[in-house]
UniProtKB/TrEMBL annotation:
Keywords: Protein transport, Transport. GO terms for cellular component: COPII vesicle coat; endoplasmic reticulum exit site. PANTHER family: PROTEIN TRANSPORT PROTEIN SEC24, SEC24-RELATED PROTEIN. Pfam families: Sec23_helical, Sec23_trunk, zf-Sec23_Sec24. InterPro entries: Sec23/24_helical_dom, Sec23/24_helical_dom_sf, Sec23/24_trunk_dom, SEC23_SEC24_subfamily, vWFA_dom_sf, Znf_Sec23_Sec24, Znf_Sec23_Sec24_sf. One of its GO terms (molecular function) is zinc ion binding. GO terms for biological process: COPII-coated vesicle cargo loading; intracellular protein transport. Belongs to the SEC23/SEC24 family. SEC24 subfamily. Residues 499-611 form the Sec23/Sec24 helical domain. It comes from the Eukaryota. This is Sec23/sec24 transport family protein. It comes from Brassica carinata (Ethiopian mustard).
Amino acid sequence: MAVRATVSRFPIDPDALEASGLPWGLTVTPFAAKDENGIAPAYGSNGHLLPRCENCYAYFNTYCELDQWAWNCSLCGTLNGLPSDAIARYSNPHSIPEMSSSFIDLELPLDGSEEEMTLARPVYVAAIDLSSSEEFLELTKSALLAALEALSPGALFGLATFSHKIGLYDVQGPVPVVKNVFIPPDAESKLPLELEDAMPLLQFLAPVETCKDRIAAALETLRPITSWERSSGAAQGMDGVLMGGRGFGTAMEALFNYLGSEFGNTFALARVFAFLSGPPDYGRGQLDTSRYGEQYASKRVDADRALLPEQTPFYKDLATIAVQAGVCVDVFAVTNEYTDLASLKFLSIESGGSLFLYSSTDDSTLPQDMFRMLNRPYAFNCLLRMRTSTEFKPLHSFGHFFPDPQYENLQHIICCDSYATYAYDFDFADNTGFSRHSGYPPVVQIAFQYTVVVPPEGLSSSELPSSSRGKHTLQRRLRIRTMQFSAAQNINEIYDSVDHEVVLSLLVHKVILVSLEDGVREGRALLHDWLVILTAQYNDAFNLVQYKNGNRSMSSQIDITFSQCPQLEPLPRLVFALLRNPLLRFHEEGVHPDYRIYLQCLFSVLEPSSLHCGIYPSLMSYTTPDKQAYPRHSLSRAALMTSGSPIFFLDAYTTLIVFYSSTADPSLPFPPPQDCLLRKTINEVKQGRSITPKLMFIRGGQDDATAFENYLIEEQDVDGSGFASSMGFVAFLDDISQSVAEYMK
């Protein structure tokens, strides 16, 4: 569980918080195997015996004062009695995790019989769009073949297709058999037949280890639905002219109901991989894609506002059905046409899944992403609870979870991998703040309760006998991290303790929320105003702007680069980069609304360092493929020219680019050889990613360098109106400086 705060020295009271101009909060990556310093938790059992405070329900931790019979809660100060079993346990503190570490992971007892525990087989279902192209299906087949290699022994796999009908495949016999159920074309009608009646669920879900070849054979039979088939389908009792044929909403709803019958019996979590090649245009949940069109050219409609909200609650409601059925949905959209991900995204993010967008089949990383996603551990049925000491409280929470309807600051997470990150911001409970001389410093406690599926104890999956392959065991665990912070005595201590990457994380969450509610223009304005206020507060705190005859001097005196505080220096650059990011660029600049939604979903789950990379890519240079020149450059043409280095490596999180300058020595090997330092760096970067970054090699003067040059944002105008030497980051700083001068008048 990695936790990072915007400031490690907390503001002492509301006045200090306001004077700082900084967001106050933290990010947490609960299922990360280690903390932010690379330290693993202390593991143990009997989590249900961990003492809890009678007042605030916080868990006992190393910061609590303990005597023989009682303990003081480190969060609220309440004196709690110790039960007799705890007194006996704590008489030998060295063997007790909660006595030795503030970061613990304890096993909890499971409800249910031993038999129910071992019947929890992992279930995976692929739902494939046949209203598509041959290229789309070839890519999907490759992805699923990669997925089959990553699935653990004992897993069950189901293959379904959708178009104007739902196809269910039985691959457990000698030849794959498909049963079809036709989808009513209108948006109101449900299926005429339950899927269970078409094919019993346990006939549909095949054991991977015995049916892998037959699943692969069934995939080879998939063909796109032709327009003739669609119209003949319409003739079979369907009225009216058939305009589309992608009955995605009906198919998903039917699949969730189908799987839900075995939830808690055959499986504890089912994952549905939905492969989509365009917008749902048939049956329930069909979407009107005509809203993305020429009408936004008129100045009366703000496309940046109109295209971000969902047009129907259908998929949000469908996500609730998925959760109740124990289903997590990952949506893989491979399309460059408008698909309205603003409506579809809820199906994935609210069921605990991921949303992937690929603009074409040519260079798609879909197979690698599938393999990577299934090859990493994940937890499910998770609860995340944030508690704080009494002087302050969590104000907002951000991330792909849903709040508990009854308990405050308790979030439900359906499925959580080791990358998924969530954020909180804080506020004071009242005007008092923290005491300057109190023995009770600010404390944050994060509790994460989760379930994992583990193979039988003592056997690796390769050693399991075939009869035991399916006998996975559910394990419920409780991970707790308790952190003690200090309160800053003055503004300098706050500024000196800033983590700019976490500040960026909270800013991104806030501008995404504002964009969704009020449009991109408002999101940009919020960001601009925040930087103006922070700069003004900083200049005030350091007395950098002098008064003359009762008036402040000209804006030329304003320190816009935070030269007195190295921790704040990166922030103007990061805000500029965020304003240049497609997340906040205007519709008329050619930002596709689906790509914007994809970025919102991606950036909402990234941990701070990865998000920093996605907003302001890192650029390093090499003298040769085996020798690094500089570890970091600013994203400007000037930086490239002055460095004199021949090779550059740019990491933009989703894209990696190796660029050889036009003046590079022709004898330098291109592309860089596999055994060189640069390749080693690239491989390390790729290995640590939640998604597979696209790798490009560009030779300046010979190849089209546009992809690389687009990332050199510092000479680009912040409003996207082109390139000019007088524009870009320098002009942006001038504008901020003038706004600060106005604000401070």
